[in-house]
Amino acid sequence: MSSTQLVRIQERLKHLKLYRINEQLESRLEEASRGNVSYGDFLDQLLDEEVSAKKEKNISMRTSMARFPFVKTLESFDFAFQPSIDKKRINELAACRFIANGENVILLGPPGVGKTHLAVALGIKAVTEGYRTHFTQAMPLVASLTKAYAENRIEERLKFYCQPKLLIIDEIGYIPIDRHGAHLFFQLISRRYERGALIVTSNRSFGQWNEIFGDTVIATAILDRILHHSTTVNIKGNSYRLKEKVKAGLLQSPELEQT
């Protein structure tokens, strides 16, 4: 291949936005000439790299748009430290069928047991599978809805939170929600009901949700919609954040404190 022809091909690849092929072209041409690679195999390899590169770029972009507080995977989750969790059940959720079916996942447990890690890890799986995902903590979500209501933009904001196929709401229950905020939260849950999937984390049992929302009727209505098509994972264990301090002898093991 002449240098003029190579330059022309590279210009066309840029025009078509086939950037990975453009990067790999010269080295692949050299490999093909040395290895007597067929035209079909040569083209197949180049296109495979281009598709992989675009997929990686899309996943990276969707991950950024999801607004995760950090990136953690199921592979990095220490299931041995939390034996109350059924790993097989979590892996089934990682297949993302619950998202396709518009179902919900509720992760319950005390602080530090890995609820947010699991929520983010499942969110990463969703992004990888091509589902639009958004992560938010409960209080910023309610504050956003309340602000939009005051500015007469509530419909616009509700639409924003209804667009993702998966909405992750973290830390329900750490701070009580006022009555007005509870009503707005109910509107969001009601609009997503059977249309979009939720992952919810909470440190409070369902029987305590009336305290979170300050109204038994609203709490019941919210739970009715969240739990109708759902999987609940109860995590009973010690805090990951305290694990290293216990190892270092800075804290006494919770098991010893209970004896």
TrEMBL record:
CDD domains: AAA (cd00009). SUPFAM superfamilies: P-loop containing nucleoside triphosphate hydrolases (SSF52540). One of its GO terms (molecular function) is ATP binding. Residues 101-234 form the AAA+ ATPase domain. Keywords: ATP-binding, Nucleotide-binding. SMART domains: AAA. Pfam families: IstB_IS21. One of its GO terms (biological process) is DNA replication. InterPro entries: AAA+_ATPase, DNAC/IstB-like, IstB, IstB_ATP-bd, P-loop_NTPase. Belongs to the IS21/IS1162 putative ATP-binding protein family. NCBIfam families: IS21_help_AAA. This is IstB domain protein ATP-binding protein. It comes from Syntrophobacter fumaroxidans (strain DSM 10017 / MPOB). The lineage of its organism: Bacteria, Pseudomonadati, Thermodesulfobacteriota, Syntrophobacteria, Syntrophobacterales.
